[in-house]
Design a protein that fits this description.
Number of domains: 1
Distance between the termini: 59 Å
Structural class: mainly alpha
Oligomer: single chain
Low-confidence stretches: none
Length: about 120
């Protein structure tokens, strides 16, 4: 296995772990897409993509198929970036995204320092 194949394999498994993290955060309710019960559709889609990525990682882990490994990794990177977009700016109307989180955190930190 040459260096390019090792890098492609590492790239693919790293992207897979990112997709798995999105799936786990969605299952535990720490991440939502702002569509209420419609989030279930995203959960199913993420599950299908993560399972497909796992199967492709296991079958394309052969040194002779490094071009396909890079292609698969890039495609799934774009898919997971789309889900990251849907978790932030692209949230649905039921629970829209409010970028005031940093202001709230900063206010809480300042209030905790004031109480000292």
């Amino acid at each position: 296995m040459n260096t390019t194949s090792k890098i492609a394999t590492f790239f693919n498994w790293t992207i897979f772990l990112a997709g798995l993290a999105i799936l786990i955060f969605t299952l535990t309710g720490q991440v939502e897409f702002g569509h209420g019960l419609g989030d279930f559709v995203y959960l199913i889609l993420i599950g299908v993509f993560v399972l497909t990525h796992l199967i492709l990682n296991l079958t394309l882990a052969k040194p002779k198929r490094k071009e396909w490994s890079w292609t698969v990794g890039a495609v799934f990177l774009l898919v997971y970036l789309f889900f990251a977009y849907k978790m932030t700016y692209g949230k649905g109307p039921e629970n829209p995204w409010h970028p005031k989180i940093e202001e709230d955190i900063n206010r809480d930190v300042l209030e905790s320092f004031d109480s000292l």
